[in-house]
Write a structure and sequence with these properties.
One of its GO terms (molecular function) is 5-oxoprolinase (ATP-hydrolyzing) activity. By secondary structure, this protein is of the alpha+beta class. 31% of the residues lie in helices and 27% in strands. The protein contains 17 helices and 35 strands. The strands form nine sheets. Strands 13, 14, 15, 18, 21, 22, 31, 34 and 35 form a nine-stranded mixed β-sheet that branches. The chain has a six-stranded mixed β-sheet with strand order 3-2-1-4-11-12, sandwiched between helices.
Length: 692
């Protein structure tokens, strides 16, 4: 079985090919092509197939992680969107909840007002009304829908979002409106809130629908083009795309719900980090991991607690400041990457990021026209990244130019030498990542000391030890092929489809059999979806859950409600919510009435998972594999000192090898920096463990 994973990042595109027939795994990196990300990805596919003598037609699965949806939102590059909504509710998407993103700031942008997903002149209303119990109070004015669609078409909109009140209870009007719009304007992309995510809370539902409309045409065009180009290379396997919930989507699923691709790439990285930690954790212990995916433009942080990847609460999920009401892995993203630019602001303060040099022009060391000092340039200046190792020697690397620029731009104005300034760049970016990790651990009642830090991405292994020291993490794991772990993670997940039904019922008033009937209807819907995607019953798993809250609360927590397909007794659901509330907030209210708000079903279609390759046992001493030694600068207790440091090629290391820092372990897709106060052990699957 041959599985291909493709992950497009800000600076590099990663390609991973595993062939279980010969127990081989191949990694490859190519520069991302920002103007057309598919161009670099297709080149990577072609090159990795040539490198391994693999005919493209023999690939069994192709999995893809992409930032195309996220970038469209963050850069405000969505298409022109029109909206048709219930009469009298034209401005919900603008007004929001009268709650500013920053409560006490008098100078701030409100994203949905500063950069509206749909302009007011493109928001139309039509007479219709469905009551809070799902019954039709005012029939849909079909002529008004057709007139609005024609007006929006004449105005040049590319996409139309349909969002009516209470459509999550009854989608009759939205479905009919979509039919009318597609008849009047067949070339316009149409999306309805009941298709995207039928859940209560009008502002968030309307915004999510508008976002789907804004990025849908771009995503659909990209996926269709990418799949067509894969076919031209000779690839016959279907294309599957990573979703933000950690599951894989088919092309049909992506066409309907483009917003599920937001944070697609980072989600794959967390899956890969969990997989590597699972195999290196004793069977008697639960996997607890902090994943740190640091690439060229950003660092993405995820949490695995008690064997489970932590998911974001749907009421709190947002991208670019816009509320997005879809299931997502809980990911914290900050502007800290190898390309993050170091500079002195107008007040003379030393800052790093979030602005990045990106793939083009990139860091100064890349010799592509970059003129601003970056995190990568700081590593080069400190002697940690060497030209002969960078991308296996396939890419030239400047050494003197980064040092000169750091001296001129940072060191001289601050009255320090260039090595102190370079180390300062790293100290700032490391503290930023450590603080972001604390927001997901310490502030949530999790002690980082009880977690393994899993660092990957092209830049993650260079910062892992320093971040671990800052957090008092005792164990750090650098996976095999860390620079392409997101691409590896793509091969570890399954097809996933989520469905939801909003209802407001107090648990004490619920009948278990009626609740079972509700879930049976949702199960039938998700099963039908995966059956259409070719998933047989024996490969289908279900997860039933519910959003609950204490009566009178304005927020919910999600709790499991079943063992298999059968819902649990109501008392067990009540007790599960009490326990979840106490775990999340430090207290619960046993005996208070609990309200069920949303019924959820997640269906998984199991896909093959690539086996991890073990590496040979060590039969020699590490010292025999030292390529050379040279001065490398390290920050030890605030003092910048040069240490004579051995350089080792990671491909020469075997299971059981160990060494003490300082050391530089280089490989094609990343560099592992081992400070003087850390030790290294090589594990059976090629993962490297750092301990203090």
């Amino acid at each position: 079985m041959k599985i291909l994973g493709i992950d497009i990042g800000g600076t590099f595109t990663d390609v991973y090919l595993t062939d279980d027939d010969v127990n081989e795994q191949t990694v490859h990196k190519v520069s991302t092509t920002p103007d057309d990300p598919s161009e670099g990805a297709l080149r990577g596919v072609h090159e990795v197939c040539e490198m391994t003598d693999t005919p493209p037609g023999e690939l069994d699965y192709v999995f893809h992680g992409t930032t195309i949806a996220t970038n469209a939102v963050l850069k405000h590059e969505g298409v022109e969107v029109g909206m048709i909504t219930t009469a009298g509710y034209r401005d919900i998407i603008h007004i929001g909840r009268h709650k500013r993103p920053q409560n006490y700031s008098i100078q701030q942008d409100v994203p949905w007002q500063q950069h509206p997903l749909t302009k007011r002149r493109h928001r139309m209303t039509v007479p219709e009304r469905i009551d809070a119990d799902g019954t039709v109070r005012t029939p849909l004015d079909e002529d008004a829908v057709a007139e609005a669609a024609r007006a929006l078409d004449d105005a040049g909109v590319d996409s139309i979002a349909v969002a009516f009140l209470f459509s999550y209870l009854n989608d009759e009007h939205e479905a009919r409106a979509k039919e009318i719009i597609e008849d009047v304007s067949p070339d316009v992309y149409v999306t309805t809130s009941s298709e995207v995510y039928p859940q209560f809370r009008e502002f968030e539902r309307f915004t999510t629908t508008a976002m789907n409309a804004a990025i849908g045409p771009t995503v659909v065009e990209y996926i269709e083009t990418f799949e067509r180009e894969l076919r031209s290379l000779g690839v016959t396997a279907d294309l599957h795309v990573m979703q933000s919930n950690g599951g894989i989507a088919t092309e049909e699923m992506v066409t309907e719900r483009a917003v599920t691709l937001l944070l697609s790439g980072p989600a794959a990285g967390i899956l890969g980090g969990k997989r590597r930690t699972d195999v290196d954790t004793p069977d008697s212990e639960a996997t607890n991991a902090i994943t740190l995916d640091m690439g060229g433009t950003s660092a993405d942080i995820g949490i695995v607690a008690d064997d489970e990847i932590v998911k974001a609460n749907v009421r709190e999920t947002q991208v670019g400041g816009y509320p997005v009401m879809i299931p997502m892995i809980d990911i914290e993203t900050i502007g800290a990457g190898g390309g993050s630019i170091a500079y002195l602001d107008d007040t003379g303060a030393f800052r790093v990021g979030p602005k990045s040099a990106g793939a083009m022009p990139g860091p100064i060391a890349y010799d592509r026209g970059g003129t601003d000092p970056t995190v990568t340039d700081a590593h080069v200046a400190l002697g940690r990244i060497r030209p002969e190792f960078f991308l296996g020697g396939e890419m030239d690397l400047l050494v003197d130019a980064p040092r000169e620029t750091i001296r001129e731009r940072l060191a001289d104005p601050l009255g320090m030498d260039e090595m102190e300034a370079a180390a300062g760049v790293l100290r700032i970016v490391n503290n930023g990542m450590a603080n972001a990790i604390r927001s997901k651990t310490v502030q949530k009642g999790r002690d980082p000391e009880n977690f393994t830090l899993v660092a990957f991405g092209g830049a993650g292994p260079m910062h892992a030890a320093d971040v671990a020291r800052e957090l008092d993490v005792s164990r750090t794991l650098i996976p095999a092929s860390p620079g392409v772990l997101s691409a590896v993670g793509l091969s570890t997940t399954d097809l996933q489809f989520d469905q939801i039904h909003t209802t407001f019922e107090t648990l004490s008033d619920l009948d278990r059999e009626r609740l079972q009937s509700d879930y049976d209807a949702l199960v039938a819907d998700v099963e039908d979806r995966l059956h259409r995607d070719g998933v047989a019953d024996e490969r289908l798993d279900l997860e039933l859950s519910a959003d609950c809250r204490y009566e009178g609360q304005g927020y919910e927590l999600t709790v499991p409600v079943s063992d298999g397909r059968r819902v649990r007794p109501i008392e067990r659901i009540d007790a599960a919510f009490d326990a979840a509330h106490e775990s999340e907030f430090g207290h619960g209210f046993d005996g208070n009435a609990v309200e069920l708000v949303n019924e959820r079903v997640t269906a998984y279609g199991r896909l093959p998972t690539a086996d991890l390759v073990t590496i040979p046992e060590a039969t020699s001493m590490v010292e025999e594999h030292v390529l050379f030694k040279d001065d490398v600068y390290f920050d030890v207790d605030g003092e910048i000192e040069a240490y004579v440091t051995p350089f080792v090629d990671r491909t020469d290391l075997r299971a059981g090898h160990s060494l003490s820092g300082p050391a530089i372990i280089a490989e094609k897709d990343s560099t592992i920096i081992v400070p003087p106060d850390f030790d290294v052990s090589v594990l059976q699957h090629g993962d490297i463990e750092l301990t203090r």
